[in-house]
Amino acid sequence: MNTTTTQTTPRAISGDATMARVLEVYPGAQRALFRKYHIGGCSSCGFDPNETLAQVCARNNHLNVAEVIAHIEQSHAADQQIYVSAQELSRWRAENVAARLVDIRTREEFDATHIPGATLFTQEIMTEMLGRWPRAELVVIYDHLGNKSMDAAAYFLGHGFTNVRALRGGIDAWAEIDSTIRKYRLD
Amino acid sequence: MEKDLQTKIAEAIANPKNMGEMDSADAIGTVGSPNCGDMVRMWIKFKEENGKKVIDRATFQTFGCETAIAVASLATELIKGKTPEEAMALRGEDLAADLGPLPPMRIHCGQLVEGALRNALSDAPPQASEPVSKPATGGGSLLANFTPASASQKKIVFLDAGKQ
């Protein structure tokens, strides 16, 4: 008779996994680590892809590896809540919901086309954001295709902002509902 | 403890002192690179005082986290009137002393400022040097993932030539 039952699902990663593997299994792991532990935000607190998760935990105040893995696993759902669709953002704007719109693309891309009312992210704006912007204010960050804005949102969430969203699909998705915005590619 | 630190950091970066470039600097030091995320650059102007060369004033720019901004702001005030040797003796924890002890995961922010200061005061020319603590490679930095390069090498090609 088999009396052994397990109530826990085997985890996809362990402390022995390299950070490259961790990011492969959980693409949002870096954001999760920074939001909670201030790891991986800048190059000084970053990690090497060949380091193991256990090594990263050890040199960051000996974090409990199992707790960190659990946090990474739980963060995927949280990531989905950070995204806002172009349609929802459009509705907020129509309803005059107060929101700061931050464009994290290059100046060249911003000059070529941008969502009206957006602020180009620069060194000065970053300092102003960290120094003066109310942490509870709604901030929507967008990029070109939606593959960088989540990292930016996580960065500011890790710095105490509580209402940061990332535009799903970037300005490219916004162009679907705003005919004044021109789609482009970078060659 | 952490809340007190956050309050002090918030106060420091609400009105950061000595922020920006200095045209007539005698020395410039850089740690990190604005093209790969976090960076602290410091400009220093010297003067003669009682026959000694001392720091007249210092300014900074940073593309780093809020702790780095706060420490850089404090550091540029702290080193005024010090000789280069006295300033070189200051460590990250000295520069951040007014904030209180930094938690282990934020100590590197103070070290970034220390690195920029030491780079400026050493004879080495300004450079985009390695961070003073463990560097990341291959996408290990969230900041580097989303900060655009200072000048894009890519050409923008509109997909719909019919618009506008």
Question: Can you describe this structure?
Answer:
Chain A has 187 residues and is α/β, with parallel strands linked by helices. In chain A, 43% of the residues lie in helices and 10% in strands. Chain A contains 9 helices and 6 strands, in the order ααααβαβαβαβαβαβ. Chain A has helices spanning 19-25, 29-37, 53-58, 65-82, 86-94, 107-112, 123-132, 149-158, 170-174, and strands at residues 83-84, 100-103, 119-120, 139-142, 164-167, 184-186. In chain A, strands 1-5-4-2-3 form a 5-stranded parallel beta sheet. In chain A, helix 2 (29-37) packs across helix 4 and helix 2 runs parallel beside helix 8 (149-158). The longest helix of chain A has 18 residues, at 65-82. Chain B has helices spanning 2-14, 66-78, 84-88, 92-95, 107-121, 142-146; strands spanning 27-32, 39-49, 52-62, 156-158. Mean pLDDT of chain B is 79; it is low at 124-139.
Q: Which tags fit this structure?
A:
heterodimer, A: 187 residues, alpha/beta, 5-stranded parallel beta sheet, 6 strands, disordered N terminus, B: 164 residues, alpha+beta, 3-stranded antiparallel beta sheet, 6 helices, 4 strands, 34% helix, globular
Structure annotation, total helices of chain B: 6
Q: Order of strands side by side in the largest beta sheet of chain A?
A: 1-5-4-2-3
Give the % helix of chain B: 25-40%
Oligomer state of the chains in this structure: heterodimer
For the largest beta-sheet of chain A, the strand count, sense and barrel status come to:
5 strands, parallel
Rg measurement of chain A, Å: 19 Å
Query: How many helices of chain A does DSSP assign?
Result: 9
Secondary-structure content class of chain A: alpha/beta
Low-confidence region ranges of chain A: 1-8
Give the rounded overall mean pLDDT of chain A.
87
**Which pair of protein chains has the largest interface, and what are the residue counts?**
A-B, 53 and 57 residues
- Nearest-integer average pLDDT of chain B: 79
> Which term fits the overall shape of chain B?
globular
Gap from first CA to last CA of chain A: 64 Å
What's the N-to-C terminus distance of chain B?
A: 56 Å
Strand composition percent of chain B: 15-25%
Strand fraction of chain A: 5-15%
Q: What's the alpha carbon Rg of chain B, rounded to whole Å? A: 18 Å
Low-confidence stretches of chain B: 124-139
Number of strands of chain B: 4
* Strand tally of chain A: 6
